[in-house]
Amino acid sequence: MRYRVIAILALMTVFMETVSADLVVFKNGDSLTGKLEKLEGGKLAFDSPMLGKIEIDMEKVSYFTTEEPIEVHLTDGTIIKSKALPTGEGKLYLDATDLLKPQSLDLAAVKSINPPAKPKPKWKGNITAGFTSTNGNTFSENGSISVDATRRTEKDRTNVFGRYIVSRAEEDNNKVTTEESLSVGAQYDYFFTKKFYSFLNGRFKKDHIADLDRRIIAGLGVGYQWIESDPMNFNTDAGVAMLCEKYTTQDEITTNDEFSLQVGYHFDMKVTKTIDFIHNMIYYPSASGSISDYYLSTDAEIRASLTSNMFTSIKAILDYDSTPAEGLGNTDTKYILGLGWNF
Q1: How far apart are alpha carbons 85 and 65 in whole angstroms?
Q2: 177 and 170 in contact (C-beta within 8 Å)?
Q3: Distance between CA 134 and CA 278 in Å, rounded?
Q4: pTM of the full structure
Q5: Where are the alpha helices (DSSP H) in the chain?
Q6: What are 118-157's pLDDT values in tens digits?
Q7: DSSP sequence for 24-88
Q8: 227 near 234, Cβ under 8 Å?
Q9: Structural domains present in the chain
Q10: Are 66 and 84 within 8 A, CB to CB?
Q11: CA pair distance 163, 147, nearest whole angstrom
């Protein structure tokens, strides 16, 4: 008697599991019961009591049903949470919800089901520092530190950067500062599509040796992301900006506040597994119409990986101001050799 009770209970357990199971019906007429876990990349993850965890090619599936609500993500961005009911081949029939009537959809319109939660966007970037010192017949010290960080989501991108450079040398038996500059900036991009975006940006620069008290630039406009991938990125943007400069020399104080246009691009590519090339350019022609009045900033960098996080780099930076303060040159060029860390 005891064994009969155990057998009946076992049969009831199997029956209850079968009744409450999800169902996949194949185009050849076969079917499989178990638990539908998720659908991604055209593959249906299914846990079958007979076969274990398997992946099913959706091209072989006629339809499927579920005993519990599933989160269905459609190709147009719509998300519906409901149970899948029996239907015809190539269809997905979702039960009614509190807000929606029953929905009959083509399986081709389903992008994913129960996709795993996406990781929260994180800041990625690098810190680079360099220092050289010469003592003996001559004396010189050169130091620099720069930070560049980006946070990318599906809808927006934020980039911030900063750079400080200082140099000292010996002149007439005195140690004097021969270079000291600070540059910081940020840009926020909002993507209307996967490629097209609008932006807001701002820059600040101070250069003690060039007598530049401040150069503040604030701009807005639109851009296009031509390429966005691990081995290569390329985007261009254009807009308008407000440029404010102040120079203080021994003889006078010069200020320049004007509207300008702005055109720029960013390009980076992985040349080899260990070598990266990065190039940026931004051009501010005066909105007054004079082609000879403009400010240009560009930089190029080559990075060589030493480890998965550490790298060495050489960077060239050029700033050109067509209308500097009286007695100052148009071009300011810097070369920086540094050691960096990716985060």
Answers
A1: 5
A2: no
A3: 30
A4: 0.70
A5: 2-19
A6: 788 999 999 999 887 777 666 778 899 999 999 999 899 9
A7: EEETTS-EEEEEEEEEETTEEEEEETTTEEEEEEGGGEEEEE-SS-EEEEETTS-EEEE-EE---
A8: yes
A9: 2-113 (no CATH), 123-342 (2.40.160.40)
A10: yes
A11: 7
User: In terms of C-beta density within 10 A (0-12 exposed, 13-18 middle, 19 or more buried), how is residue 327 classed?
Assistant: exposed
List the single range of 3-17, 20-34, 86-100, 146-160 with lowest mean pLDDT: 3-17
Q: pLDDT tens digits, residue range 234-263?
A: 999 999 999 998 888 777 888 888 899 999
Question: 194 vs 17, which has greater pLDDT?
Answer: 194
Distance from chain centroid for Cα 46? 33
Q: Is 306 helix (H, G, I), strand (E, B) or coil?
A: coil
Token couple for 242 = 């407000």
Taking a C-beta distance cutoff of 8 angstroms, is the pair 72, 82 a contact? yes
Specify whether the CB–CB gap between 99 and 82 falls below 8 A. no
Structure confidence at residue 288 (pLDDT): 76
Q: Are 58 and 39 in contact (CB under 8 A)?
A: yes
Residue 277: how many other CB atoms lie within 10 Å: 14
**Gap between the Cα atoms of 282 and 298, Å rounded:** 6
Q: Which residues contact 159 (CB under 8 A, 6 or more apart)?
A: 148, 149, 150, 186, 187, 189
Number of H helices, E strands in the chain: 1, 23
Q: What is the pLDDT of residue 227?
A: 96
pLDDT at position 119:
83
Determine contact, residues 169/179, Cβ cutoff 8 Å: no
